[in-house]
Amino acid sequence: MGKVQLLLRQHVGAPCAPCVEVGADVKKGTLIATPTGLGANIFSSVYGKVTEITDDSIIIEAADEQPDEFVPIDVPADATKLDMVKAAGIVGMGGAGFPTGVKLGIDLSATEMGEMDPEINPELPADFKIEHGYILVNAAECEPGLEHNIRQIEEQCDKVIAGIKYSMEITKADKCIIAIKKKNHKAIKTLQAALANELDIIMHLMPDIYPMVNLTTVQLPSAARSVVLNLETICKIAEAIDEKKPCISKNLTVRGKLVGGNEAHVFMDVPVGVSVGELIERAGGIDGKYGEIIMGGAFTGKSTEMDAPITKTTGGILVTVEFPDLHGANMGLLVCACGGSEERMRELAEKMNAKVVSVARCKQAIENKPGAPLKCLRPGNCPGQVKNNMQFKKDGCEYIVIGNCSDCSNTVMASGPKMGLKVFHQTDHAMRSVGHALYRSLKVSKQVSQDIDF
Fold this sequence. Notes:
Layout lengths: L2 E5 L9 E2 L6 E2 L4 E4 L7 E2 L4 E6 L3 E6 L18 H7 L12 H4 L30 E5 L9 H8 L1 H15 L3 E7 L3 H10 L6 E6 L19 E5 H13 L5 E8 L8 E7 L4 H7 L10 E3 L6 E3 L11 E4 L10 E6 L6 H10 L3 E7 L3 E2 L8 E2 L9 H9 L4 E4 L6 H5 L8 E4 L2 H7 L15 E3 L2
Parallel strand pairs: 8-9, 8-11, 9-10, 12-16, 17-18, 17-21, 21-22
Antiparallel strand pairs: 1-7, 2-4, 3-6, 4-5, 6-7, 10-23, 12-13, 14-15, 14-16, 19-20
Protein backbone atom coordinates (compact mmCIF):
# COMPACT_ATOMS: atom_id res chain seq x y z
CA MET A 1 0.00 0.00 0.00
CA GLY A 2 2.87 2.38 0.68
CA LYS A 3 1.99 5.96 1.53
CA VAL A 4 -1.54 7.13 2.27
CA GLN A 5 -2.33 10.83 1.89
CA LEU A 6 -5.27 12.16 3.91
CA LEU A 7 -6.40 15.58 2.79
CA LEU A 8 -7.35 18.02 5.55
CA ARG A 9 -10.37 19.16 3.60
CA GLN A 10 -12.67 16.32 2.55
CA HIS A 11 -15.89 18.15 3.23
CA VAL A 12 -17.81 21.37 2.80
CA GLY A 13 -16.27 23.95 5.15
CA ALA A 14 -12.80 24.87 6.35
CA PRO A 15 -9.80 22.49 6.39
CA CYS A 16 -9.34 20.49 9.56
CA ALA A 17 -6.42 21.08 11.93
CA PRO A 18 -3.97 18.20 12.55
CA CYS A 19 -3.97 16.78 16.08
CA VAL A 20 -1.04 14.39 15.58
CA GLU A 21 2.66 15.00 15.01
CA VAL A 22 5.22 13.65 12.57
CA GLY A 23 6.53 10.35 13.88
CA ALA A 24 3.32 9.34 15.61
CA ASP A 25 2.22 5.72 15.33
CA VAL A 26 -1.42 5.49 14.26
CA LYS A 27 -4.05 2.82 13.86
CA LYS A 28 -7.18 2.54 11.76
CA GLY A 29 -9.52 4.96 13.44
CA THR A 30 -6.95 7.13 15.22
CA LEU A 31 -8.23 10.71 15.21
CA ILE A 32 -5.67 12.79 13.29
CA ALA A 33 -7.47 16.08 12.46
CA THR A 34 -10.43 18.01 13.84
CA PRO A 35 -12.69 20.74 12.40
CA THR A 36 -11.85 24.42 12.77
CA GLY A 37 -15.39 25.43 11.85
CA LEU A 38 -17.87 23.67 9.61
CA GLY A 39 -16.28 20.31 8.90
CA ALA A 40 -15.88 16.71 10.02
CA ASN A 41 -13.31 14.69 11.97
CA ILE A 42 -10.59 12.94 9.97
CA PHE A 43 -9.13 9.61 11.08
CA SER A 44 -6.24 7.47 9.99
CA SER A 45 -7.49 4.84 7.55
CA VAL A 46 -4.50 2.53 8.08
CA TYR A 47 -2.03 1.24 10.62
CA GLY A 48 1.26 3.07 10.15
CA LYS A 49 3.43 6.09 11.02
CA VAL A 50 2.88 9.78 10.26
CA THR A 51 5.79 10.78 8.04
CA GLU A 52 4.79 14.28 6.91
CA ILE A 53 2.25 17.00 7.63
CA THR A 54 1.74 19.66 4.96
CA ASP A 55 -0.60 22.62 4.67
CA ASP A 56 -3.28 20.44 3.10
CA SER A 57 -2.63 16.83 4.09
CA ILE A 58 -1.29 14.27 6.53
CA ILE A 59 0.88 11.55 4.99
CA ILE A 60 1.11 8.14 6.62
CA GLU A 61 3.48 5.31 5.73
CA ALA A 62 1.24 2.26 5.91
CA ALA A 63 2.49 -0.78 7.81
CA ASP A 64 2.89 -4.08 6.00
CA GLU A 65 0.32 -5.72 8.26
CA GLN A 66 -3.16 -4.18 8.28
CA PRO A 67 -5.43 -5.83 10.88
CA ASP A 68 -9.19 -5.49 10.41
CA GLU A 69 -9.62 -3.99 13.89
CA PHE A 70 -10.16 -0.24 14.23
CA VAL A 71 -10.18 2.28 17.06
CA PRO A 72 -13.84 3.00 17.88
CA ILE A 73 -15.08 6.58 18.00
CA ASP A 74 -14.60 8.21 21.39
CA VAL A 75 -18.06 9.13 22.70
CA PRO A 76 -19.46 9.18 26.24
CA ALA A 77 -21.77 6.43 27.44
CA ASP A 78 -24.79 8.71 27.17
CA ALA A 79 -23.98 9.87 23.62
CA THR A 80 -26.97 10.23 21.33
CA LYS A 81 -27.10 8.68 17.89
CA LEU A 82 -26.54 12.14 16.40
CA ASP A 83 -23.46 12.54 18.62
CA MET A 84 -22.09 9.29 17.17
CA VAL A 85 -22.66 10.44 13.58
CA LYS A 86 -20.84 13.70 14.29
CA ALA A 87 -17.97 11.96 16.08
CA ALA A 88 -17.52 9.50 13.19
CA GLY A 89 -16.71 12.29 10.73
CA ILE A 90 -19.35 11.26 8.20
CA VAL A 91 -19.97 13.54 5.23
CA GLY A 92 -22.02 13.27 2.06
CA MET A 93 -20.33 10.28 0.43
CA GLY A 94 -21.96 10.89 -2.95
CA GLY A 95 -19.64 13.79 -3.72
CA ALA A 96 -21.16 16.81 -2.01
CA GLY A 97 -19.26 16.36 1.26
CA PHE A 98 -21.63 18.26 3.55
CA PRO A 99 -21.13 17.15 7.18
CA THR A 100 -23.85 14.60 7.90
CA GLY A 101 -24.02 15.42 11.59
CA VAL A 102 -25.05 18.95 10.69
CA LYS A 103 -27.55 17.81 8.06
CA LEU A 104 -29.27 15.43 10.48
CA GLY A 105 -29.52 18.12 13.16
CA ILE A 106 -33.07 19.05 12.19
CA ASP A 107 -36.47 18.17 13.66
CA LEU A 108 -38.61 17.30 10.65
CA SER A 109 -41.62 16.68 12.84
CA ALA A 110 -41.55 20.26 14.11
CA THR A 111 -40.70 22.06 10.89
CA GLU A 112 -43.50 24.50 10.14
CA MET A 113 -43.85 24.55 6.42
CA GLY A 114 -46.87 26.78 5.97
CA GLU A 115 -47.91 26.93 2.35
CA MET A 116 -45.85 25.08 -0.20
CA ASP A 117 -43.56 27.50 -2.02
CA PRO A 118 -45.30 28.15 -5.37
CA GLU A 119 -41.90 28.24 -7.08
CA ILE A 120 -41.45 24.57 -6.23
CA ASN A 121 -44.73 23.55 -7.82
CA PRO A 122 -47.01 26.37 -8.94
CA GLU A 123 -49.78 23.93 -9.88
CA LEU A 124 -50.44 22.89 -6.27
CA PRO A 125 -53.42 24.39 -4.41
CA ALA A 126 -52.61 27.47 -2.35
CA ASP A 127 -53.51 25.69 0.88
CA PHE A 128 -51.33 22.63 0.15
CA LYS A 129 -49.23 21.53 3.11
CA ILE A 130 -46.65 18.80 3.53
CA GLU A 131 -48.00 16.25 5.99
CA HIS A 132 -44.84 14.23 6.62
CA GLY A 133 -41.15 14.67 7.24
CA TYR A 134 -39.09 12.62 4.79
CA ILE A 135 -35.70 11.01 4.56
CA LEU A 136 -34.90 10.83 0.84
CA VAL A 137 -32.27 8.23 0.01
CA ASN A 138 -30.38 8.89 -3.21
CA ALA A 139 -29.70 5.42 -4.57
CA ALA A 140 -29.96 6.67 -8.16
CA GLU A 141 -26.19 6.45 -8.69
CA CYS A 142 -26.61 9.57 -10.80
CA GLU A 143 -23.30 9.49 -12.66
CA PRO A 144 -23.47 6.98 -15.53
CA GLY A 145 -21.04 4.08 -15.34
CA LEU A 146 -20.78 3.90 -11.55
CA GLU A 147 -22.09 0.82 -9.74
CA HIS A 148 -20.87 0.79 -6.11
CA ASN A 149 -24.08 2.14 -4.55
CA ILE A 150 -26.14 -0.55 -6.25
CA ARG A 151 -23.63 -3.21 -5.18
CA GLN A 152 -23.99 -2.09 -1.56
CA ILE A 153 -27.77 -2.53 -1.75
CA GLU A 154 -27.33 -6.02 -3.16
CA GLU A 155 -24.75 -7.09 -0.59
CA GLN A 156 -25.49 -5.02 2.53
CA CYS A 157 -29.21 -4.30 2.44
CA ASP A 158 -29.59 -4.85 6.20
CA LYS A 159 -27.12 -2.03 6.79
CA VAL A 160 -29.06 0.20 4.38
CA ILE A 161 -32.34 -0.34 6.25
CA ALA A 162 -30.66 0.17 9.62
CA GLY A 163 -29.15 3.46 8.47
CA ILE A 164 -32.51 4.64 7.16
CA LYS A 165 -34.24 3.87 10.46
CA TYR A 166 -31.54 5.66 12.46
CA SER A 167 -31.80 8.70 10.18
CA MET A 168 -35.58 8.75 10.56
CA GLU A 169 -35.25 8.46 14.33
CA ILE A 170 -32.67 11.26 14.61
CA THR A 171 -34.64 13.71 12.45
CA LYS A 172 -38.09 12.52 13.60
CA ALA A 173 -39.03 11.87 9.97
CA ASP A 174 -41.99 9.55 9.65
CA LYS A 175 -41.48 8.50 6.03
CA CYS A 176 -38.60 7.50 3.77
CA ILE A 177 -38.36 7.30 -0.02
CA ILE A 178 -35.54 5.41 -1.71
CA ALA A 179 -34.91 6.76 -5.23
CA ILE A 180 -33.44 4.08 -7.49
CA LYS A 181 -33.27 3.61 -11.26
CA LYS A 182 -35.65 0.94 -12.51
CA LYS A 183 -32.89 -0.74 -14.54
CA ASN A 184 -31.32 -2.12 -11.31
CA HIS A 185 -33.51 -5.22 -11.13
CA LYS A 186 -31.46 -7.24 -8.64
CA ALA A 187 -31.13 -4.35 -6.19
CA ILE A 188 -34.85 -3.58 -6.47
CA LYS A 189 -35.76 -7.20 -5.69
CA THR A 190 -33.42 -7.14 -2.71
CA LEU A 191 -35.09 -3.97 -1.42
CA GLN A 192 -38.55 -5.40 -2.07
CA ALA A 193 -37.79 -8.31 0.25
CA ALA A 194 -36.27 -6.04 2.90
CA LEU A 195 -39.22 -3.63 2.83
CA ALA A 196 -41.94 -6.27 3.00
CA ASN A 197 -42.96 -5.17 6.50
CA GLU A 198 -41.68 -1.59 6.42
CA LEU A 199 -44.80 0.47 5.81
CA ASP A 200 -43.06 3.85 6.15
CA ILE A 201 -40.29 3.16 3.63
CA ILE A 202 -41.07 3.05 -0.09
CA MET A 203 -39.15 2.98 -3.35
CA HIS A 204 -39.41 5.48 -6.17
CA LEU A 205 -38.36 4.01 -9.51
CA MET A 206 -36.60 6.39 -11.88
CA PRO A 207 -35.72 6.29 -15.58
CA ASP A 208 -32.09 5.91 -16.57
CA ILE A 209 -31.38 9.60 -17.04
CA TYR A 210 -29.27 12.14 -15.19
CA PRO A 211 -31.75 13.34 -12.53
CA MET A 212 -32.51 16.85 -11.31
CA VAL A 213 -33.90 18.37 -8.11
CA ASN A 214 -36.93 20.63 -8.31
CA LEU A 215 -36.26 23.34 -5.70
CA THR A 216 -35.48 27.02 -6.07
CA THR A 217 -31.80 27.97 -6.33
CA VAL A 218 -31.56 29.15 -2.73
CA GLN A 219 -33.57 26.39 -1.07
CA LEU A 220 -32.32 23.37 0.80
CA PRO A 221 -34.31 20.10 0.88
CA SER A 222 -35.53 21.14 4.34
CA ALA A 223 -37.78 23.61 2.49
CA ALA A 224 -39.71 20.52 1.38
CA ARG A 225 -39.49 19.04 4.89
CA SER A 226 -36.89 16.53 3.77
CA VAL A 227 -33.31 15.47 4.31
CA VAL A 228 -31.51 13.93 1.33
CA LEU A 229 -28.81 11.33 2.02
CA ASN A 230 -26.65 9.35 -0.35
CA LEU A 231 -26.96 5.56 -0.09
CA GLU A 232 -23.39 5.10 1.10
CA THR A 233 -23.82 7.86 3.67
CA ILE A 234 -26.80 5.96 5.06
CA CYS A 235 -24.60 2.90 5.54
CA LYS A 236 -21.89 4.95 7.27
CA ILE A 237 -24.54 6.17 9.72
CA ALA A 238 -25.39 2.55 10.56
CA GLU A 239 -21.70 1.71 11.02
CA ALA A 240 -21.15 4.66 13.37
CA ILE A 241 -24.11 3.74 15.58
CA ASP A 242 -23.92 -0.07 15.52
CA GLU A 243 -20.14 -0.49 15.46
CA LYS A 244 -18.81 2.91 16.63
CA LYS A 245 -16.83 2.87 13.39
CA PRO A 246 -15.27 6.11 12.17
CA CYS A 247 -15.54 7.15 8.52
CA ILE A 248 -12.24 5.74 7.24
CA SER A 249 -13.11 3.92 4.02
CA LYS A 250 -14.82 4.49 0.69
CA ASN A 251 -16.70 2.43 -1.87
CA LEU A 252 -15.99 3.37 -5.46
CA THR A 253 -16.06 2.29 -9.08
CA VAL A 254 -13.00 2.15 -11.35
CA ARG A 255 -13.82 1.88 -15.02
CA GLY A 256 -12.88 2.84 -18.57
CA LYS A 257 -9.91 2.18 -20.83
CA LEU A 258 -8.44 -0.61 -18.75
CA VAL A 259 -6.68 -3.86 -19.53
CA GLY A 260 -9.39 -6.50 -19.81
CA GLY A 261 -12.19 -4.21 -20.96
CA ASN A 262 -14.42 -1.41 -19.73
CA GLU A 263 -16.58 -3.30 -17.26
CA ALA A 264 -16.99 -1.74 -13.81
CA HIS A 265 -14.54 -2.71 -11.06
CA VAL A 266 -16.28 -2.10 -7.73
CA PHE A 267 -14.04 -1.78 -4.68
CA MET A 268 -15.61 -1.75 -1.23
CA ASP A 269 -14.09 -0.31 1.95
CA VAL A 270 -10.99 1.16 0.33
CA PRO A 271 -8.92 3.11 2.89
CA VAL A 272 -9.36 6.85 2.39
CA GLY A 273 -6.10 8.34 1.13
CA VAL A 274 -5.07 5.51 -1.21
CA SER A 275 -3.81 6.82 -4.55
CA VAL A 276 -5.75 6.84 -7.81
CA GLY A 277 -2.88 4.95 -9.45
CA GLU A 278 -3.02 2.09 -6.94
CA LEU A 279 -6.73 1.57 -7.60
CA ILE A 280 -6.25 1.67 -11.36
CA GLU A 281 -3.57 -1.00 -11.03
CA ARG A 282 -5.94 -3.10 -8.91
CA ALA A 283 -8.45 -2.83 -11.77
CA GLY A 284 -5.94 -4.14 -14.31
CA GLY A 285 -4.04 -1.02 -15.34
CA ILE A 286 -4.51 1.40 -18.22
CA ASP A 287 -4.80 -0.11 -21.68
CA GLY A 288 -2.40 1.88 -23.87
CA LYS A 289 -2.85 5.58 -24.58
CA TYR A 290 -5.68 7.41 -22.88
CA GLY A 291 -7.30 10.82 -22.76
CA GLU A 292 -7.55 11.72 -19.08
CA ILE A 293 -8.38 10.30 -15.66
CA ILE A 294 -11.56 11.65 -14.07
CA MET A 295 -12.08 11.57 -10.32
CA GLY A 296 -15.80 11.47 -9.62
CA GLY A 297 -18.25 11.13 -12.48
CA ALA A 298 -18.47 12.21 -16.08
CA PHE A 299 -20.84 15.12 -15.36
CA THR A 300 -19.41 16.64 -12.20
CA GLY A 301 -15.98 15.04 -11.83
CA LYS A 302 -12.61 16.65 -12.43
CA SER A 303 -9.45 15.53 -14.15
CA THR A 304 -6.88 14.07 -11.80
CA GLU A 305 -3.44 12.46 -11.66
CA MET A 306 -2.21 8.99 -10.69
CA ASP A 307 -0.73 10.16 -7.39
CA ALA A 308 -3.87 11.99 -6.20
CA PRO A 309 -5.52 10.49 -3.08
CA ILE A 310 -9.12 9.38 -2.88
CA THR A 311 -11.25 11.14 -0.27
CA LYS A 312 -14.50 10.49 1.58
CA THR A 313 -16.37 11.93 -1.41
CA THR A 314 -14.65 10.06 -4.26
CA GLY A 315 -17.22 8.00 -6.13
CA GLY A 316 -15.47 6.97 -9.29
CA ILE A 317 -12.21 6.83 -11.20
CA LEU A 318 -12.72 6.86 -14.96
CA VAL A 319 -9.92 6.34 -17.46
CA THR A 320 -11.06 7.77 -20.78
CA VAL A 321 -10.30 7.16 -24.41
CA GLU A 322 -8.14 9.68 -26.22
CA PHE A 323 -9.62 13.03 -27.22
CA PRO A 324 -10.30 13.85 -30.88
CA ASP A 325 -7.91 16.37 -32.42
CA LEU A 326 -9.92 19.29 -33.83
CA HIS A 327 -6.80 20.99 -35.26
CA GLY A 328 -7.51 24.42 -33.83
CA ALA A 329 -11.14 24.67 -34.94
CA ASN A 330 -13.33 27.36 -33.39
CA MET A 331 -15.43 26.15 -30.48
CA GLY A 332 -18.29 27.54 -28.37
CA LEU A 333 -19.05 26.57 -24.79
CA LEU A 334 -22.61 26.32 -23.48
CA VAL A 335 -22.29 26.41 -19.70
CA CYS A 336 -25.13 24.83 -17.71
CA ALA A 337 -25.73 24.30 -14.00
CA CYS A 338 -25.96 20.51 -14.51
CA GLY A 339 -22.47 19.83 -15.77
CA GLY A 340 -18.94 21.16 -15.58
CA SER A 341 -17.91 24.74 -14.92
CA GLU A 342 -16.62 27.03 -17.65
CA GLU A 343 -13.12 26.24 -16.41
CA ARG A 344 -13.73 22.50 -16.86
CA MET A 345 -15.19 23.02 -20.34
CA ARG A 346 -12.22 25.16 -21.38
CA GLU A 347 -9.96 22.36 -20.19
CA LEU A 348 -11.82 19.89 -22.42
CA ALA A 349 -11.63 22.24 -25.41
CA GLU A 350 -7.87 22.55 -24.92
CA LYS A 351 -7.50 18.77 -24.74
CA MET A 352 -9.39 18.53 -28.06
CA ASN A 353 -7.05 21.15 -29.58
CA ALA A 354 -9.88 23.59 -30.19
CA LYS A 355 -9.93 27.38 -29.91
CA VAL A 356 -12.67 28.80 -27.64
CA VAL A 357 -14.16 31.83 -29.40
CA SER A 358 -17.59 32.05 -27.76
CA VAL A 359 -19.07 31.29 -24.33
CA ALA A 360 -22.78 31.28 -23.51
CA ARG A 361 -24.68 30.40 -20.37
CA CYS A 362 -28.10 28.81 -20.20
CA LYS A 363 -30.42 31.65 -19.15
CA GLN A 364 -31.70 29.54 -16.24
CA ALA A 365 -28.19 28.97 -14.83
CA ILE A 366 -27.56 31.62 -12.19
CA GLU A 367 -25.09 32.43 -9.44
CA ASN A 368 -26.61 33.00 -6.03
CA LYS A 369 -23.48 34.97 -5.20
CA PRO A 370 -20.37 35.88 -7.24
CA GLY A 371 -18.13 32.89 -7.83
CA ALA A 372 -20.62 30.36 -6.45
CA PRO A 373 -21.47 27.22 -8.45
CA LEU A 374 -24.29 27.73 -10.94
CA LYS A 375 -27.82 26.73 -9.95
CA CYS A 376 -30.73 26.01 -12.28
CA LEU A 377 -33.89 28.08 -11.86
CA ARG A 378 -36.25 25.36 -13.11
CA PRO A 379 -34.59 21.93 -13.34
CA GLY A 380 -36.10 19.72 -16.01
CA ASN A 381 -37.72 22.65 -17.80
CA CYS A 382 -34.88 23.74 -20.02
CA PRO A 383 -35.51 26.82 -22.18
CA GLY A 384 -34.83 26.72 -25.90
CA GLN A 385 -31.20 27.21 -26.83
CA VAL A 386 -31.81 28.69 -30.28
CA LYS A 387 -30.54 32.11 -29.23
CA ASN A 388 -27.29 30.70 -27.88
CA ASN A 389 -26.82 28.51 -30.93
CA MET A 390 -27.35 31.54 -33.16
CA GLN A 391 -24.68 33.39 -31.17
CA PHE A 392 -22.26 30.51 -31.60
CA LYS A 393 -22.89 30.52 -35.34
CA LYS A 394 -22.42 34.29 -35.51
CA ASP A 395 -19.12 34.01 -33.62
CA GLY A 396 -17.78 31.56 -36.19
CA CYS A 397 -17.99 28.35 -34.17
CA GLU A 398 -17.72 25.04 -35.97
CA TYR A 399 -18.08 22.98 -32.79
CA ILE A 400 -19.84 23.48 -29.47
CA VAL A 401 -19.46 21.70 -26.15
CA ILE A 402 -22.52 21.38 -23.92
CA GLY A 403 -22.84 20.21 -20.32
CA ASN A 404 -26.59 19.89 -20.04
CA CYS A 405 -28.49 17.24 -18.10
CA SER A 406 -30.13 14.35 -19.94
CA ASP A 407 -33.39 16.09 -20.77
CA CYS A 408 -32.00 19.51 -21.56
CA SER A 409 -29.67 18.22 -24.28
CA ASN A 410 -32.78 17.94 -26.46
CA THR A 411 -33.11 21.72 -26.59
CA VAL A 412 -29.62 22.09 -28.03
CA MET A 413 -29.99 19.31 -30.55
CA ALA A 414 -33.28 20.73 -31.84
CA SER A 415 -31.50 23.62 -33.54
CA GLY A 416 -27.71 23.31 -33.31
CA PRO A 417 -27.08 20.68 -36.01
CA LYS A 418 -29.53 22.45 -38.35
CA MET A 419 -27.25 25.49 -38.13
CA GLY A 420 -24.22 23.39 -39.02
CA LEU A 421 -22.88 23.26 -35.47
CA LYS A 422 -21.17 20.02 -34.53
CA VAL A 423 -22.09 19.12 -30.94
CA PHE A 424 -19.95 17.50 -28.28
CA HIS A 425 -21.29 16.74 -24.84
CA GLN A 426 -18.70 17.21 -22.11
CA THR A 427 -19.21 13.55 -21.13
CA ASP A 428 -18.62 12.09 -24.61
CA HIS A 429 -15.11 10.77 -23.99
CA ALA A 430 -16.18 9.24 -20.68
CA MET A 431 -19.35 7.69 -22.14
CA ARG A 432 -17.36 6.10 -24.96
CA SER A 433 -14.95 4.75 -22.37
CA VAL A 434 -17.61 2.98 -20.29
CA GLY A 435 -19.80 1.83 -23.20
CA HIS A 436 -22.68 4.19 -22.45
CA ALA A 437 -24.84 5.93 -25.05
CA LEU A 438 -23.84 9.53 -25.79
CA TYR A 439 -26.01 12.35 -24.49
CA ARG A 440 -27.69 13.99 -27.46
CA SER A 441 -31.47 13.63 -27.83
CA LEU A 442 -33.31 11.97 -24.99
CA LYS A 443 -35.33 8.98 -26.23
CA VAL A 444 -37.06 7.90 -23.01
CA SER A 445 -39.81 9.86 -21.32
CA LYS A 446 -39.39 11.17 -17.79
CA GLN A 447 -42.89 9.95 -17.04
CA VAL A 448 -41.87 6.31 -16.52
CA SER A 449 -40.97 6.97 -12.88
CA GLN A 450 -43.37 5.67 -10.26
CA ASP A 451 -43.79 5.05 -6.55
CA ILE A 452 -43.81 1.46 -5.36
CA ASP A 453 -45.27 0.52 -1.95
CA PHE A 454 -44.44 -2.79 -0.28
